[in-house]
């Protein structure tokens, strides 16, 4: 009988894992890839749509385009997971795997921050970011806060990127002088593992008059008074609030027993990404392996797990341990992108190497995206 692999979630992690297994094993394996959505959207595309640099249709990659040997793609909501039996219940049937991959990402909970849903906006969900595309053109004046509302959030550079892109956006519309921009973050610097990247971002903020409020979270908005209340009780006025909502372990994962509660990401073996249940792996944002939450780390984790499954089936050498290393591109505005390579797990503490913003890195980031779409969806990269 063929080995059955059930992959829960077709995000960065699930897509990379499915692609590697199909490329290596083809019809010799039976993979079912399950996601409730109908299309993949890169996290960074949310910023592109929000600031009018792309239209929504251009950044949605429909799952129906995936045609790969050994792979069935199912659009359905996962309702329960039994990790001991590796049994999954969806709206469209039940599935059992010899191997179960949990790649369900992080859920967003804007309702956890009082006032955010009624009095602010969030740019972390696809719907929230796409809606801002119609809100930003009408914004004329006043203080803007880009505020983080929970300690653990994906893509730590994204709030800083949003501020730098907003500066360009308002400048192009002739509205920058009428607006203040502040970024509220729970860290002392924008990118803690990389002092050089943090220095460069803070210098870019200083040049553009963007205020960085460190070591703080936005706890609540008071829409009637148009103020944001920070974790230390300070109040900041806002005319436009762009929030990073509280992140939670998906409820179906907590209910499965894989995570103890909504803020306790799934514990895994740091080297193999295996959970405490044999044959059950957690890759990407859903796990608590100790990296930042970002697509590149989800992808790296997926590659380690896929290599282990391939080695098991083919009898090859044990693959290398997960290193928690990856490169993130950072939008600096002014049509420039920087790059930070972070290694979370090889040494005693995370380290990061910075590459100065340049136009060459804009092209490198574009090719990072198009090469993934080509591999995952089997499509050629867009023509120049
Ligand atoms: C504004 C922004 C910018 C970003 N920029 C970058 C960047 O430049 N580089 C980078 O590396 N990362 C970036 N990220 C982070 C990146 O998007 C995530 O870290 C990455 O997508 C995580 O991958 P994942 O596979 O763990 O989860 P996801 O990609 O979130 O995939 C999880 C999947 O599970 C599905 N799912 C969840 N629950 C269920 C259920 N019950 N039933 C069925 N399906 C379900 C979801 O529909 C989803 O498709 C950014 C994020 C944001 C918000």
Description:
With 384 residues, the chain is an alpha/beta fold. The protein folds into two domains: 3-106 and 249-324 and 370-377, FAD/NAD(P)-binding domain (3-Layer(bba) Sandwich), CATH 3.50.50.60; 108-246, FAD/NAD(P)-binding domain. The protein contains ten helices and 23 strands. The protein has helices spanning 12-25, 43-50, 56-59, 116-119, 126-135, 158-172, 195-208, 251-255, 295-314, 359-377; strands at 3-8, 29-35, 39-40, 61-62, 71-75, 78-82, 87-90, 93-96, 99-102, 107-109, 121-122, 142-148, 179-184, 210-213, 218-222, 227-230, 235-237, 240-244, 246-248, 280-282, 325-333, 336-343, 351-358. The strands form seven sheets. A five-stranded parallel β-sheet has the order 5-2-1-9-20, with helices on one face. Strands 11-18-12-13-14 form a five-stranded parallel β-sheet. α7 (195-208) links the parallel β13 and β14. The mean pLDDT is 96.
Question: Which runs of at least 5 residues are low in confidence (pLDDT < 50)?
Answer: none
User: And the CATH topology of the largest domain?
Assistant: FAD/NAD(P)-binding domain
**What is the helix tally?**
10
Corresponding CATH architecture of the largest domain: 3-Layer(bba) Sandwich
- Rg over CA atoms, rounded to whole Å, is 21 Å
Overall, the morphology is globular
Query: Tell me, what is the CATH class of the largest domain?
Result: Alpha Beta
Q: Which ligands appear in the coordinates?
A: flavin-adenine dinucleotide
